[in-house]
Design goal:
heterodimer, A: about 260 residues, mainly alpha, 12 helices, globular, B: about 325 residues, alpha/beta, six-stranded mixed beta sheet, four-stranded antiparallel beta sheet, 13 strands, about 25% strand
């Protein structure tokens, strides 16, 4: 038996965290609903919007075309689907079926399974951002963001805020079904305030104001100004940071392993 | 590497010897108490488990069996009292404890699309000296299901995988909670054989069950828990003999027997005639005593049948007696 054990330990001396990332990643690929909506839908919309001639006209009062206005909105759409579905649904499921509890009977802390889910979804978001940016620039003649630092800061803050929202849903929902319900309820308001239906620039001022104080509206605003070459103003950055801290704090406070 | 000397300094002797039996005791539970809100799950539970035994925890649903083993495995923190495993405290020595204790949880599923092999290799990566996943699957008879997804497995196969996950870390102690619930009779039998094989490899097994046949067949010793307290603690045979209505012996005598010859024997509680047969009920070494007494009066017994008291009867009697005592106590208050 000891010979068997030592032979095995040579072979399986792999890092538990990366093993978790590998397995949870495979599971995500086998149930690719998060991938279809998190990557597929924004890319699909990029192609549709990029093919509409009218979207090439410059929006009055900006240096951007309608299509370019939509690039940050599509990026935030990625984060909405990942934050509402891709991240919290598997966590809620793993808790509901007792998988998290099962992991907590091993020497490995179940926080690693959360970290693995966050890692997988970060990779997913990064792939989507890369496709949207590269696709827009190389296929549809979008000018890349001229304020790179502001753009990067905005997308990082937006990602943290929306991932915190995902963890908050996972923390508050007692089951996978409730998590799905909460996500469905938040989906359309968030898509609306991100401007996927009609960009905020084209809507009345009071709706714009409300949008600016949502995490998604603030993100689109900050990304939009970076694309026009101005460093984003402090308010949208602050709004995202406050949401990130608030969601993260409440999630940590109420998260249950079973 | 484990520095034993340091551990001994820190935690005391790692291998305490049970003074009563001379065996190493690997789990010690001392006046354990755990309450959820106003519900007392475990009131006062104490026992110790010797190395290499199959220790059964039986009791009615909601008696506190699961909570007790959850405290042992460190999943729950007791309100008072203690549960120590190899002198490790489940709360403070979390990681060290989990390396040595493999746990199979009641009603814990795996993600539906995870493959059998993936789950085992994942768990193997959690432990410093795991068993070989392929060998383990082979010995559990589910090697052919290596590439099957969890949702495609039958109930019995899911249980085997669950046992495999509890054993992959090469633990010294395995905690198995309601292992055979929902399995068909054949799968139950196979699971029992499996548990005996686990013990033969030197693993101490803590088995939570509410099936008396399972407890009788597998366990070296049993703790019967009712309303969060240990009501009885003994071997299955001793419990059955003492509390299960005693042994029942039937025979056909070669000639007439005076009942007094039999009723005078110590431990005999009743003597009945059923046609030519005599039925003697009692406890202790009934058969030898009766046969010896018959020989003394020159009678031979033929067609002898002996039934021992059943654990099932012992279980019902002990829990009912305990329940009645409780009702009485409540009535007095």
């Amino acid at each position: 038996m000891s010979a068997q054990a030592s032979k095995a330990s040579e072979h399986y001396s792999s890092n538990p965290f990366w093993e978790l990332v590998k397995v949870e990643g495979k599971l995500a690929l086998r149930e690719p609903i998060g991938i279809i909506f998190g990557v597929g839908l924004p890319v699909f919309l990029l192609i549709i919007f990029g093919s509409i001639p009218a979207f090439r006209q410059t929006v009055p009062g900006t240096t951007l075309s309608t299509f370019e206005v939509y690039i940050p909105i599509l990026m935030i759409t990625v984060l909405i689907f990942i934050g509402l579905f891709g991240l919290p649904i598997p966590i809620a499921r793993d808790r509901e079926i007792g998988w998290l509890r099962r992991i907590s009977t091993t020497p490995v802390s179940p926080t690693k399974i959360l970290a693995a889910q966050v890692t997988i979804n970060l990779v997913l978001a990064a792939i989507s951002f890369a496709i949207l940016t590269a696709g827009g620039v190389f296929f549809f003649g979008v000018k890349g963001p001229s304020e790179i630092l502001g753009f990067a800061l905005s997308i990082v803050l937006a990602t943290i805020a929306m991932f915190s929202l995902g963890l908050l849903i996972a923390a508050l929902a007692p089951s996978q079904g409730v998590a799905g319900g909460m996500a469905q309820g938040l989906l359309y308001p968030l898509l609306f305030f991100a401007g996927i239906y009609v960009p905020m620039q084209f809507l009345p001022g009071h709706l714009q104001t409300i949008s600016n104080f949502t995490p998604v509206g603030a993100a689109v605003q900050a990304l939009g100004s970076s694309m026009q070459g101005t460093f984003p103003s402090i308010i949208p950055l602050l709004v995202m940071a406050v949401y990130a801290v608030f969601f993260g704090f409440v999630a940590a406070r109420y998260f249950r392993w079973e | 590497m484990i520095d034993t000397e340091n551990l001994t300094k820190k935690f005391g002797n790692l291998n305490p010897i049970n003074k009563a039996t001379g065996q190493k005791s690997v789990v010690t539970v001392n006046h354990l108490r755990k309450q959820y809100g106003t519900t007392v799950a475990v009131d006062d539970v104490s026992f110790s488990i010797a190395e290499g035994e199959i220790f059964g925890i039986i009791g009615p649903n909601g008696a506190g069996k699961t909570t007790a083993v959850e405290c042992i495995s460190g999943l729950r923190v007791p309100d008072s009292g203690s549960a120590t495993v190899y002198d490790l405290n489940p709360r403070d020595d979390r990681e060290e404890l989990r390396k040595r204790v493999g746990v199979q949880l009641q009603e814990s599923l795996l993600p539906p699309r995870i493959k059998v092999g993936e789950a085992l290799e994942l768990f193997a990566s959690f432990y410093p000296r795991p068993l070989d996943p392929n060998d383990l699957l082979e010995s559990l008879g589910i090697a052919q299901k290596r590439n099957a997804k969890f949702k495609q497995l039958s109930g019995g196969q899911k249980q085997r995988l669950s046992i495999a996950l509890a054993l992959i870390g090469n633990p010294k102690i395995a905690i198995l909670d309601e292992l055979t619930t929902g399995l068909d009779p054949e799968a139950r039998r196979e699971t029992w054989e499996l548990i005996e094989r686990i013990r033969d490899r030197g693993v101490t097994v803590i088995l939570v069950t509410h099936y008396m046949d399972e407890a009788e067949r597998l366990c070296d010793r049993l703790a019967l828990i009712n309303h969060g307290k240990v009501v009885a603690l003994d071997t299955p045979a001793a419990l059955a003999a003492r509390e299960g209505g005693g042994a029942r012996m039937q025979f056909v005598p070669s000639g007439p027997v005076d009942d007094k010859v039999l009723t005078a024997l110590p431990g005999v509680t009743s003597v009945e005639h059923k046609g030519r047969r005599i039925v003697v009920v009692g406890s202790g070494d009934l058969t030898t005593q009766v046969l010896y007494a018959l020989l003394n009066v020159g009678v031979h017994a033929s067609d002898v049948q002996v039934e021992n008291g059943s654990l099932e009867d012992a279980f019902v009697k002990l829990t009912q007696t305990d329940d009645n005592a409780r009702k009485h106590e409540v009535g007095l208050q």
